[in-house]
Amino acid sequence: MSVSLKGDQPFENVPSVKAKALRINLNEHIYGTFAEIGAGQEVARHFFRSGGASGTIAKTMSAYDKAFSDAIYGHETDSGYVSESRLKKMLDHETKLLEDRMDRKVHPNKMFFTYANTVATIDFAKKYKGHGWMGLKFQTTPKESFSEVHIHVRFHSFDAKAQQESLGLMGLNLIYGAYYKHDQPKKLLKYLYDHIDPAAIEIDTINFSGPLFSKVDNRVMSLELVKNGMTEAVMFGPDGNNILPARVLWKKNILAIRGSFRPVTLVNEDMYLKSKEIILKDKNLNEKNLINLFEITLSNLRSTNGDGDGDVNEKDFMDRAKLLCALGYTVMITNFKEYYKLAEYFSNYTQNQVVLTMGVNNLIEIFDEKYYDNLRGGILEAFGKLFVKNLRVFLYPMRTKEGLIINSNNIHVANKMKNLYKYFKSNKILIDIKKYNENLLKIYSFKVLKKIRNKKSGWEKMLPEEVTNQIKSKKLFGYK
After folding, report:
1. CA 167 from chain center: how many Å?
2. Least confident of 113-127, 193-207, 351-365, 412-426
3. pLDDT given at position 9
4. What are 394-437's pLDDT values in tens digits?
5. What residues pair up with 35 in beta bridges, in sequence order?
6. Within 13 A of 141's CA, how many CA atoms are on the CB side?
7. CA 308 – CA 294 distance, rounded (Å)
8. Facing residues of 36 across strands?
9. Rg of the chain over CA atoms, in angstroms?
10. What number does CATH give the domain 246-478?
């Protein structure tokens, strides 16, 4: 039997907290378990308080002691207890118990769900604000396979009670949205913040899976997080699934290359390979501890019309994402137009070596005071954040129309910036990429894109072979 969830009231009139919980409780077909570790029964209590919970809640539980938690869900090794691995074990275990204990012959119309979270709120010393994973495994008809939503959150308030309240509300919004807005996942994402101060809690990773979300591309959902201001940076791997930045960046050496990658050219490839070659000359650096990132800023994604302030072209974004993933790269989407914000973000997760590879035009912009009008301390404040310990800039040269090669030795910066520039150059913070391929300096991605769209020949020679193959086979960037 199929149980319809259509005919819902519009979300423009946001239901109250009690109304959401009560609506779930009064649906006789929705039935499930709450398993909450770390922050208490913050989500379940909304359903208990609203009334009518006896027909909805199979059980609620918390396993605060590690020994008890391990006895139920198994031991955690590398990933720890506040992890997606733990969340998945909780969801799978509790869902299996539901199916084992609830006879479908007796309850043919029940739609099962399991909500789980594993959370560490702010510590007593208020040094670490806390973070957590929450997720839902659910079905909207009794016979369908389960779908899932996994979310990672970071707390920004300094009060444990406020953090718990935010968590409880977001969990409630997740369950409500999953049942009544699963067919509009972008809206579901926005409604996770109903009745919550957006500054109190950040969502930096989300993944949808299962039959209800078969048409959802998690890279698009990742982009939505940045567009909606829910986080400043997201990452996704070659498989297209979103990954937790903290887990990937923690105590790593980082090589980050910023670009439009529209499309990836031989220049981009050369920048990456030559940068990596320089880094790996350090005998103390373990390549396994190096993460390579291809970063695209939100302003770049909005600059397809030339102004940087328009809407993001989702098709254009996906063309870039598919291409980078097909090449096996880890992609980062950020709202960091300024490089110092990117450096500051990395410093939250690692004190190891960070390398930013950039072209001459990017470096000129960094030494332009107008770039820092929003900072009270201007360029000096920005440089204090940009050139943190163990950060270096690898500079890829450019060739002028007259054929002059511009590098760190002949780049032009404003007169009052020259001493500052000399300081960073003399201290080997700024390093030229010397073994570059000079024949590539005439390649520009915007020219390649123009050739592709105008059906002009010759663009293939400007791109890595695999990039050309991907563009042609997947009809990317307007190729026909």
Report:
1. 19
2. 113-127
3. 45
4. 999 999 989 999 999 999 988 888 988 998 888 889 999 999 99
5. 61, 116
6. 10
7. 19
8. 117
9. 25
10. 3.40.50.620
**Within a 10 A sphere around the Cβ of 78, how many other Cβ atoms?**
6
For residue 46, what are its two tokens?
């909304």
Give ranges for CATH 3.90.950.20 in the chain: 17-216
CATH of domain 17-216: 3.90.950.20
Q: Are 345 and 336 in contact (CB under 8 A)?
A: yes
d(CA 297, CA 174): 28
How many of the other CB atoms lie within 10 Å of CB of 95?
21
Question: Residue range 30-46: average pLDDT?
Answer: 90
DSSP 330-362: EEEEE---SHHHHHHHHHTT--S-EEEEEEHHH
What is the rounded CA–CA span in Å between residue 315 and residue 477?
9
Q: What is the pTM of this model?
A: 0.91
Fill in the DSSP letter of residue 15. P
Residue showing tokens 């790996």: 280
Q: Percentage of the chain with pLDDT > 70?
A: 95
Q: What would the two tokens of residue 140 be? A: 């909207």
Residue 475 Ramachandran class (φ > 0 left, ψ -120 to 50 alpha, else beta): left
DSSP symbol at 44: H
Burial of 10 (0-12, 13-18, 19+ CB in 10 A): exposed
Task: Give bridge partners of residue 331 from the DSSP assignment.
Answer: 236, 294
Nearest 5°: phi and psi at 430? Answer: -105, 120
On whether the CB atoms of residues 182 and 188 are closer than 8 A, the answer is yes
Residue 39 has pLDDT above 80, yes or no: no
Peptide bond connecting 464 to the previous residue in cis, omega within 30 degrees of 0: no
Q: What is the rounded CA–CA span in Å between residue 324 and residue 237?
A: 9
Domain with CATH 3.40.50.620 in the chain: 246-478
C-alpha–C-alpha distance, residues 207 and 288, integer Å: 26
Q: Six-digit token pair at 428? A: 């080997």
